[in-house]
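HOLO CASE FILE
Compound: NAP
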Amino acid sequence: MDEVSTAATVFYPELRGKRAVVTGAGKGIGAETVDGLITQGCYIIAISRTQADLDKLKQKYDSTKIETILLDITHWNEVDNIFSKLEPFHYLINNAGIAICGPFLQVSEQDIDSVFGVNVKACLHVAQCAAKKMLENKIKGVVVNISSQASKRPIKDHTMYCCTKAALDMLTKMMSLELGPSEIRTVSVNPTVVMTDMGRKNWSEPSKSESMLSQIPLRRFAEVDEVVKPILFCLSDGAAMINGCDVNIDGGFVSA
Ligand code: NAP
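Model generated. Tokens follow.
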């Protein structure tokens, strides 16, 4: 069998010394993205809302590689305040997101506010703060919005999640249109199921996972590393002309 490469075996020298903000850095895709970026020689500003997760990051990497910020990105004024004080940075990995699943007829007002509050409102606000900072500092930066295959196909019991990720893809297009002239690129990456805490919560039940797997031509879910590597590529010079598009990491689900 061929050796499977990890994010660490992909190397983009142009990422070395760059500064990257990662939201939702405490767990799952965000935490692995932090790892991939540090391996490339980036300095990380890791944002998440559970102190214990941030403490783990601080234990794992020394302070020359990472700083951590405890922040719930739905707290509008706090986000403004924190971003206004950040040193300039080159990349935003706009990753924090939540999923509340259930039948369409049972979607509650509170659930709508929660999911739209994080996945759309807060992600837009964080992207806005990041873009302002890049513009102020004349940085030709990159924003990667972590979307989902759920933005493109309806998935049973995922009304709010599908709607919010579709909105995020449009945010990517809007940002690419309005920030492109300042040489700030924006892309979405759209993974299939990944067995993080979020993935396990929603897809561990065999009847659900088997139905989803049968619709993915490659017949498997994505490994976290298979999401991190495309993120790194999107930041690299190899993606210099890639702007405003969605990168599907879905084994063919959306196309099938
Ligand atoms: P995860 O394991 O649940 O981790 C999400 C991280 O985001 C956690 O550290 C969480 O902090 C943080 N977070 C959530 N809301 C936040 C807020 N308001 N402010 C600050 N931090 C917040 O999820 P994941 O699977 O890594 O998902 C990461 C992204 O990928 C999400 O946008 C998700 O929609 C997307 N995605 C996931 C999958 C999948 O199957 N896993 C598939 C496609 C796309 P706490 O734990 O402290 O709440």
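CASE NOTES: The longest helix spans residues 109-136. The chain has one domain: 11-192+223-241.
CLOSED: yes
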